Every structure is written in C-alpha cells, then in structure tokens.
C-alpha cells in the first residue's frame, strides 16, 4: 500500500515504514503528525484518486528529527563592474517516519 501526499508545496510517494525529509513542520521530536492532503491511495489493485484530495484519507507520521540542511552557496558576479556577492543559506527541514496510511 502506498499513497501520494502533498506537504510544503511538494508531492511525495510514501508507504508505511518510509523515512521522509520534508519542509519544516511544527512539532517536537517524537510527536505524531497527521498529513491530510492525500492525493492518491493505492492498495494492490484498488487505486483511489482524489479530486483534488481523497476524502477521509490521512497519513500518520512520527517526527524523527528537526534540523537544517547542508549549506547552499549563492554567488553573484557582474563582470568588469567589481561586483561579487557570496551568500549562504541553510533550509530547515523535518524528518518524518511514516507510521500508517488510513483510508
């Protein structure tokens, strides 16, 4: 059984037992989170597609980690103008462990 869920503006294919790294969600490590924007649920031959979401479907996940990703460097330069800028950015993330897919 697997599902496609939308969180943080992105879509992820998940199954029970998967570990997933998503945009930052509120909550402490060890808490349970419910994701309700389920776009598709597939259980063997039975496939339910939402319009746009599947009614009554939700995904129960446990927060494993709250952290910040690796640094991304952004370098800008304009030739012959003596202009260069180097900036860094670390995006916050939440690591989830998928516990259960409810339909």
TrEMBL record:
<keyword id="KW-0687">Ribonucleoprotein</keyword>
<comment type="similarity">
    <text>Belongs to the bacterial ribosomal protein bL21 family.</text>
</comment>
<dbReference type="GO" id="GO:0003735">
    <property type="term" value="F:structural constituent of ribosome"/>
</dbReference>
<dbReference type="Pfam" id="PF00829">
    <property type="entry name" value="Ribosomal_L21p"/>
</dbReference>
<dbReference type="InterPro" id="IPR028909">
    <property type="entry name" value="bL21-like"/>
</dbReference>
<dbReference type="GO" id="GO:0019843">
    <property type="term" value="F:rRNA binding"/>
</dbReference>
<comment type="subunit">
    <text>Part of the 50S ribosomal subunit. Contacts protein L20.</text>
</comment>
<keyword id="KW-0694">RNA-binding</keyword>
<keyword id="KW-0699">rRNA-binding</keyword>
<dbReference type="InterPro" id="IPR001787">
    <property type="entry name" value="Ribosomal_bL21"/>
</dbReference>
<dbReference type="GO" id="GO:0005840">
    <property type="term" value="C:ribosome"/>
</dbReference>
<comment type="function">
    <text>This protein binds to 23S rRNA in the presence of protein L20.</text>
</comment>
<dbReference type="GO" id="GO:1990904">
    <property type="term" value="C:ribonucleoprotein complex"/>
</dbReference>
<dbReference type="GO" id="GO:0005737">
    <property type="term" value="C:cytoplasm"/>
</dbReference>
<protein>
    <recommendedName>
        <fullName>Large ribosomal subunit protein bL21</fullName>
    </recommendedName>
</protein>
<dbReference type="GO" id="GO:0006412">
    <property type="term" value="P:translation"/>
</dbReference>
<dbReference type="InterPro" id="IPR018258">
    <property type="entry name" value="Ribosomal_bL21_CS"/>
</dbReference>
<dbReference type="InterPro" id="IPR036164">
    <property type="entry name" value="bL21-like_sf"/>
</dbReference>
<keyword id="KW-0689">Ribosomal protein</keyword>
